[in-house]
Amino acid sequence: MIRKLLRRVFSRGKPDAASQPPHEPALIPVERHGIRREAISPGALKTVTRMQEAGFKAFVVGGAVRDLLAGITPKDYDIATNATPDEVRNLFRRSRIIGRRFQIVHVMSGPETLEVSTFRAGSGEEGATKDEHGRILRDNIFGSQQEDAGRRDFTVNALYYDPATETIVDFHHGVADLQQKTLRMIGDPRARYREDPVRMLRAARLSAKLGLTLDPACKAPIREMAVLLENVPVARLFDEMLKLLLSGHAVACLKQLRDEGLHHGLLPLLDVILEQPMGERFVWLSLANTDERVRAGKPVSPGFLFATLLWHEVLATWEARKKEGDASIPALFEAMNEVLDTQAEKLAITRRIASDIKDIWLLQPRFDANTGKRPLRVLEQPRFRAGYDFLLLRAESGEVPMALAHWWTSFMEADPEERMVLLQPESPGTKKPRRRRRKPSGSEAAPEEAGNLRAESGE
Ligand code: ATP
Ligand code: MG
């Protein structure tokens, strides 16, 4: 009896008993947070309303509420409910249940896909299977809304918005933290990082994206716990890296990772990016360029991004091979494979992405020729546009002469007759290009059209 009582008292005192917060949630009215129901996407509004009309609890939750409060347009909407996946599925004709480990429902509404998940009990002792480092392998038990809030990572991510009343349900003072620009972990940060080390990367990414300061308790253990990331499955790390790099804040995120000591020896790709002596300018330029595209709502392909991040590794390996006496193009093939193989050990670069990357790299030596018939064939390559954008970055970083990039801009924009003139060896265009319509320098280097850069981040 006494032991039971003691256990209860102690477990209440433990900070990671956050899944059972002592207080009732704060109900924050629209006058205080300012999010009108029209601010959420039509699909999210329709889906939540439909579920509520059917008698269930339903809220917009997580990143979307946080972003709206911070004045950022959410990129997608998550919905949390007390309905089971089957009940949700039965409500919406255009919906499907996904996930084996923990089922969620994708509800299609117009062009949107809403992710609907049932309230889940989280990191508590029961129901969660952990590995020998304490990393949660499974936590697939339905729970109350309060438990659902407690298993989320940061206070600003545990906000529930009810469009019917325009109220925010706030279990962990997330609204106040956001107003004070603080990223705070729910519960004991050490315990929460142990359960899921990816939260360290999320801390870096979200603080950079939202301009939040990491709460000292949240920041302090990261350096020492960073090694736990080694136990995280490769595919999950890759997803997180992709999110980070395509967040529109890649430059800020990577600086934050470096500051937190999260980059070293963990992900070879990060080592490459942040510790590359000669390609540093090229890499930061490419990340800044990606950020700009993402923020302008333009598509970015992971293949293009990784091609830029790994390029100077390829260049160095290529050079070494040529010095050993290999012919140029076979040496390039070997260098490409070597660099991609090294990365593939840690990162799950899909075959499709790897083939995009190679296409872009292989086009680069072909840009060197700007006379004769060869440039016309280059122009016909399916990945020409991506290869050309890549060339612009190389020129901007000083790796190849700007005049070469200018020549290709003129050549690409010229009509067939003009092209023939440009291809003459004595053509003024081969040396001094005519005025371009688009400047491949400075911030305008980002290509205007999507071209070959299709949105493929969903891979
Ligand atoms: P964004 O979509 O902008 O990248 P997000 O916070 O919405 O950020 P998601 O991966 O979409 O990130 O996750 C949705 C929500 O699920 C989060 O807001 C958070 O409440 C919860 N969540 C996500 N990952 C974790 C995690 N590793 N641990 C605990 N909760 C998490
Ligand atoms: Mg999200």
Short note summarizing the structure:
The protein is an alpha+beta fold and 459 residues long. Helices cover 49% and strands 11% of the residues.
Globular, elongated, flat, extended or rod-shaped: what is the shape? elongated
Which stretches are low in confidence, meaning pLDDT under 50 for 5 or more residues running? 1-21, 429-459
Q: Summarize the biggest pleated sheet.
A: 8 strands, mixed
Through-space gap between termini:
54 Å
Strand content: 5-15%
Q: Rg, please?
A: 26 Å
CATH topology heading of the domain at 2-187:
Beta Polymerase, domain 2
Q: CATH H-level name of the domain at 2-187... which superfamily?
A: Beta Polymerase, domain 2
Count of DSSP H/I helices: 23
Mean pLDDT: 83
What is the quaternary state of this protein? single chain
Outline the fold blueprint.
Layout: H1 2-13, E1 26-28, H2 30-33, H3 42-53, E2 58-61, H4 63-69, E3 78-81, H5 85-91, E4 95-98, E5 104-109, E6 112-118, E7 120-121, E8 128-130, E9 136-139, E10 141-142, H6 145-150, E11 159-162, E12 167-170, H7 174-179, E13 182-183, H8 189-195, H9 198-210, E14 213-214, H10 216-219, H11 222-225, H12 234-245, H13 250-259, H14 268-274, H15 280-295, H16 302-323, H17 328-346, H18 351-363, H19 374-379, H20 384-396, H21 402-413, H22 416-423, H23 428-431
Parallel strand pairs: 3-6, 13-14
Antiparallel strand pairs: 1-12, 2-3, 2-11, 4-5, 5-6, 7-10, 8-9, 11-12
Helix pairs in contact: 9-12, 9-13, 15-16, 16-17, 16-18, 17-18, 18-20, 20-21
Bound molecules: adenosine-5'-triphosphate and magnesium ion.
